[in-house]
Design brief:
Elements lengths: L6 H20 L6 E5 L6 H17 L3 E5 L6 H8 L7 E6 L1 H9 L11 E16 L8 H10 L5 E4 L5 H13 L4 E4 L3 H9 L5 E5 H9 L4 E5 L25 E9 L4 H15 L2 H9 L3 E2 L4 H22 L5
Parallel strand pairs: 1-2, 1-3, 5-6, 5-7
Antiparallel strand pairs: 3-9, 4-7, 4-8, 4-9, 4-10
Helix pairs in contact: 2-9, 4-11
Length: 325
């Protein structure tokens, strides 16, 4: 009958699609791949991904393009990535903000950190560092606390945005030290640092990779790192924990995810190539120079990591009574 499909016809069509899909997966990638970075150039997330692509492109056999889509504390870039075609040609440079803090902090997000993404691998972890402009008359955490208290809750601090790791680290520090500071949110770590270096904002907690240059150039003064142990790149800078707050331990992290429903063979290839990249001596050295501890994972391990981070920060935000509409 004209216009009707028989069961046999449908079977032939369906089986005809399978080889085509398999061929597309086997040919991956056959054109450039883009990685959406949800912050401006120069920040920790951007730096880590630019290190990765210098060698990952060799394994993939195609160019990798970084696309900076800043806004909404990184959530704009996450939304764009989540809604991208799940073909492996759009990847997302995630961090503790988009797949840790934001799902715990925001009542509503334009993406679901678990359902809308497929984990590929963790890159590594890095501490945040408390810095001040050189004109600020403090050289230790104790002096900073006294300075903040003397300011009567009117001293500003910068952050890369609401819900980012530096923002939450400072909020935890405020609670621990029982001080008040005024939060000034920027669209990324680089512009926040620019205003601290310019003396417009006296202080911030920032990802160590993006702070190192300014610290070593004397344009900011480092007071403490947020990790449990001192960092090798700043061996003379104490931890917050040893500065009077035992147990204080916050580390930022970076990783790579893809939109959900990217075919498993493509995800497996991306994981394998990324892990090989992260294990290269020159890549490990570049990350070490940026104070990042490289920690490649399987896709399953990264999925567990993300779930644990969301659970951890959910407890923290509830305890601190911090929410964002």
């Amino acid at each position: 009958m004209k216009g009707c499909w028989t069961a046999g016809t449908l079977v032939v069509l369906l089986f005809g699609l399978v080889p085509a899909a398999m061929a597309a997966e086997q040919a991956y990638p056959n054109r450039p791949v883009r990685i959406i970075v949800p912050f401006p150039p120069g920040g920790g997330v951007d730096i880590s991904n630019r290190i990765v692509i210098t060698r990952l492109t060799e394994f993939l056999g195609q160019p990798i393009v970084i696309e900076n889509r800043a806004g909404a504390s990184g959530n704009l870039g996450a939304e764009i990535a989540a809604k991208s075609t799940p073909d492996g040609y759009t990847l997302f440079a995630t961090s503790i903000a988009q797949h840790g803090v934001s799902p715990a902090l925001y009542k509503k997000l334009p993406y679901d950190a678990i359902k809308d993404f497929a984990p590929i691998s963790l890159y590594g972890t890095t501490p945040n560092v408390l810095v001040v402009h050189p004109s600020v008359p403090v050289k230790s955490v104790a002096e900073f606390i006294a300075y903040a208290k003397a300011g009567g809750g009117k001293i500003n601090y910068a952050s890369p945005g609401v819900g980012t790791s530096p923002h939450m680290t400072m909020e935890l520090f405020k609670l621990s030290a029982k001080i008040e500071l005024v939060h000034v949110a920027y669209k990324g770590g680089a512009p926040a640092l620019q205003d601290v270096m310019g003396g417009h904002i006296p202080t911030l907690f920032g990802n160590l990779p993006e702070q190192l240059g300014a610290i070593k150039a004397g344009r900011t003064r480092a007071l403490a790192v947020s990790s449990a142990k001192r960092n090798p790149t700043l061996p003379d800078v104490p931890t917050v924990a040893e500065s009077g707050f035992p147990g204080f331990d916050v580390s930022s992290w970076y990783g790579l995810v893809a939109p959900a429903k990217v075919p498993k063979p493509i995800l497996d290839k991306l994981n394998a190539d990324l892990v090989k990249t992260l294990n290269l001596p020159d890549i490990r050295e570049k990350f070490a120079q940026q104070s990042v501890d490289v920690r490649p994972t399987t896709r399953e391990e990264f999925a567990v990591w993300i779930r644990n981070e969301i659970a951890k920060w959910t407890k923290v935000t509830k305890a601190a009574n911090i929410t964002v509409d």
